[in-house]
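Hey, quick one: can you model this chain's 3D structure?
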Amino acid sequence: MKMPLTSLRASRWLPLCALLLTAVAGAARASVQTTQPPLRPIRIDLQDQAALRTGALYTLHLCVACHGIQGARYSELPPLLGLGKATFLKTIGSNGRHYHDTITSNMSTSLMMDFTHMAPLDLTEIAARRSPAWLYTYLTSFYVDPSRPTGANNVAFYNVAMPDVFAGMQGLQQPVMVNGLRFGSPARIAVGVRPLTAGSMSHAQFDATARDIVTFLYAVAHPHQQERMRLGPWIIGLFVVLSVLTYLIYRLYWARVITGTQRWWRVE
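Sure thing. Here's the predicted structure for all 268 residues.
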């Protein structure tokens, strides 16, 4: 049986089309390939109330100047921090807002748009989307970049609009650059930072403070995490007990099923 001439002509173009599609897919994949800087490892303990209190103090008196935490209310924080209402209002406070209000920024959106040309994201949303390692790397990896409007850039977030509000505590830093790819194009990529000037805190002290801030933000963004950790073992144990009881009932039930050889009315 002979193949039609049109089919023969079409079959000649199949390898060329496949090669073209492969090249286009490779170019599209390369066009978005970007060298990812390593994230700093971190371990947080949501049961560490001292860390939660320190993180809440810095977050509510530094970060809330621009960002909101509208996933939480001030009234929800005392149980999380292990404080009474009076102690919370005295030591940390509610920034002049009502005790049952959601945590919002003290700066107007229009003013932030004039300064950074974008509205700052809510910290609840950021902490819910990002891992603790990313948050920790972000907080500790600002570096001097004269090309940016704020004079600062970040290892974890290239061309970040946020200024380096931690410069006074951490000191200024300079980037560690390597050759890499940014959206498929060769570029110099910041993969770390080195101290440039000293701050009011030592390196270890600031890292501990950043870890406390991450602990607090993660706890606020995942308000039921501690409850899940507390109830998880009991729920798993309940399923194990139910599985054992179900198996015993299964054996008891089938042990009492009358088989064909035990029926007195069976037909020979």
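One thing worth noting: Residues 23-31 have pLDDT under 50 and may be disordered.
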